Task: structure prediction
Amino acid sequence: MSKEARVSLVTDGVDGFFSRAHEHARKLDRGEKVEAELVIAFEDASEMMKVLSVERLRVIRASKKATPVSVLAGALKRNTRAVSRDINLLESFGLLRTRYVSNPGHGRRRIVESRAKTYRLIACI
Result:
């Protein structure tokens, strides 16, 4: 997925999944282009909010550029281990990506960056 793709977090469950699939199929039948998008669906808004705490949203916002985790933690004025735990969770949901680069004389360094230029949160209560 390119950095220009959009990430959507929704709480529309199975009905929403089938609705999106149906709409994509109709666009393809008409020969229209389907935009690249990653959709992460939650059962309800409370499940979404367990993943998207205020601190985790700060991590996502601060990760627009590829940044070492230690630098990101410093910028957020948070403990590096706490930021790493948040990054692990957000990466497991596909919201961030990480990679390791060589850090001469110090081993390897973990770099974190956002998956997309735009994130949309759509919660139905």
Q: What stands out?
A: Residues 6-122 form a domain with the Arc Repressor Mutant, subunit A fold (CATH 1.10.10.10). Residues 13-29 form the longest helix (17 residues). The radius of gyration is 17 Å. Residues 42 and 48 are 6 Å apart (CA to CA).
